[in-house]
Specification:
Rossmann fold; about 40% helix; alpha/beta; 2 domains
Length: about 260
């Protein structure tokens, strides 16, 4: 895919940071020495970790050069590096591996999450939050729009572009980690974000889930796709009593502590 757009991503920073803060609040660590923020993006989640644990070495990792540039500008006193969570191995075992809204992009969770958990220092914590919205209208309509237009051959299989099959049920994550962990906490929450209009919902997903559908298209195809998709979103998310739209956004949280 093309590189991420930090400006578009941070347009909804308050809404995106809320689950990051709620994940961090459930981390049962008093004074970690080393913490990694996997998929740190523009540094909004990294800032939360550094504020809670000012004595810790906090390192942000991301695959996106533009996101890392934004994070370094925001938090010049912290360390940021390019790395892929799928293959990353730390130089020394961290006390906290924090992965907010990143692991949903990666396949084979049955292997990935135990691997990351196994990198922790004794007593360390793996804290994960993942959007669980592939069945929501936003993402279902991405796939339907992709399959219905002249751009279908360019996009390819909508299920592949839409990352279907990557997320497990919450209980499956518990079963993966419980046999090797001292404690595992798993929960699922649906946020309902107040959005100005259908275009705002499209803007939200354009910086994340819609990218694999848009990136292969030329400018004309992209404009036509967005027009069709926006019409579908407007119908799926009707105005509420105040004229705004409510974007339902389920997320899965996992906090696992090593023995």
């Amino acid at each position: 895919m093309a590189d991420w757009n930090p400006a578009l991503y941070t347009r909804f920073e308050d809404e995106r940071t809320r689950p990051a803060a709620e994940l961090l609040a459930r981390v049962p660590l008093d004074a970690p020495r080393l913490a990694y923020d996997l998929g740190c993006g523009p540094g909004n989640s990294t800032a939360l970790i550094a504020a809670r644990y000012p004595e810790a070495d906090v390192i942000g990792l991301d695959t996106s050069p533009s996101m890392l540039e934004s994070a370094r500008a925001r938090l010049p006193d912290l360390t940021f590096a390019q790395a892929d969570a799928a293959t990353w191995v730390p130089e020394r075992a961290p006390d906290l591996i924090y992965a907010n809204a990143v692991l949903q992009w990666l396949p084979d969770h049955a292997t990935l999450l135990p691997r990351l958990f196994g990198l922790l220092a004794p007593g360390g914590v793996l804290a994960v939050q993942m959007p669980d919205n592939l069945a929501e209208p936003t993402h279902r309509l991405m796939r339907e729009t992709a399959a219905a237009g002249s751009w279908a051959a360019v996009i390819g299989d909508p299920a592949v572009a839409g990352r279907l099959g990557r997320m497990l049920e919450p209980a499956a994550y518990y079963d993966l980690l419980a046999p090797v962990a001292a404690a595992v906490d798993v929960w699922r929450t649906a946020y309902h974000h107040r959005m100005a209009d259908a275009g705002a919902i499209v803007d939200w997903v354009s910086s994340t889930g819609l990218r694999p559908f848009l990136d292969p298209l030329d400018p004309g195809e992209r404009a036509d796709f967005l027009s069709a998709y926006t019409r579908a979103i407007a119908a799926a998310y009707p105005p509420r009593s105040d004229g705004r739209r409510l974007l339902a956004f389920p997320r899965v949280f996992i906090v696992a502590r090593a023995q």
